[in-house]
Amino acid sequence: DQQVKQNSPSLSVQEGRISILNCDYTNSMFDYFLWYKKYPAEGPTFLISISSIKDKNEDGRFTVFLNKSAKHLSLHIVPSQPGDSAVYFCAVDSWGKLQFGAGTQVVVTP
Amino acid sequence: NAGVTQTPKFQVLKTGQSMTLQCAQDMNHEYMSWYRQDPGMGLRLIHYSVGAGITDQGEVPNGYNVSRSTTEDFPLRLLSAAPSQTSVYFCASRRQGVGSYNSPLHFGNGTRLTVT
């Protein structure tokens, strides 16, 4: 059973606007969360992470928010750029092993 | 700066054939793992290793074998390929141990396998 869920398979956003990607998880014991970005024909690359002791972590245009009571995290990209068009995977660190969501395809249009 | 290298990039097999997907990393990472990516399923863990001589099963281990004789290499073997093993396979590594808690995974560029 999937313990990490990304319910939006795709997202289209205009260049310069905000992209918001969502992720839900089932186990309240998870304590570390990550986002990976993947371009076609390449492996996923680490983007940003957050520990359960925080509710927000920011790195440039990327911010991850964690709502532990709702078991929900989100990734905000502001402003969105054409190079952000990729598949984004949410992941949880499950006792040293990463479990991934199904991914969200983001397309940034001019 | 090679990172994680996977070979081959593409492979077509007939049902019942065997093959080995190669993975090598030059970052001296203790932890190595194999994932498969399927549409709508994300990345699922097949096998992993926390050091030379130590391997363990992930979420979807059936039909796959691994071994870890060196820190650098972590090959994935398909003993008798099945169409259900058609997928994109990713090898990944990261640091393990004291001071490396939650270090991110570094992925190779994948092997696209088709089993007919």
Structural class, from helix and strand content of chain A? mainly beta
Question: Quick one: which chains have the greatest interface?
Answer: A-B, 25 and 25 residues
Order of helices and strands of chain B: EEEEEEEEEEE
Give the termini distance of chain B in whole angstroms. 36 Å
Oligomeric state? heterodimer
Estimate the strand proportion of chain A. Answer: over 45%
Report the sheet with the most strands of chain B, covering strand number, pairing sense and barrel closure.
7 strands, mixed
Q: How many extended strands of chain A?
A: 11
Structural class of chain B: mainly beta
Please give the share of residues in helix of chain A: under 10%
Give Rg of chain B in angstroms.
14 Å
Mean pLDDT of chain A: 95
Give the ordered list of helices and strands of chain A.
Answer: EEEEEEEEEEE
Weakly predicted, low-confidence segments of chain B: none
| Total strand segments of chain B | 11
Rg of chain A, Å, rounded: 13 Å
Net shape of chain B: globular
Primary descriptors:
heterodimer; A: 110 residues; mainly beta; six-stranded mixed β-sheet; five-stranded antiparallel β-sheet; 11 strands; 0% helix; B: 116 residues; seven-stranded mixed β-sheet; four-stranded antiparallel β-sheet; globular
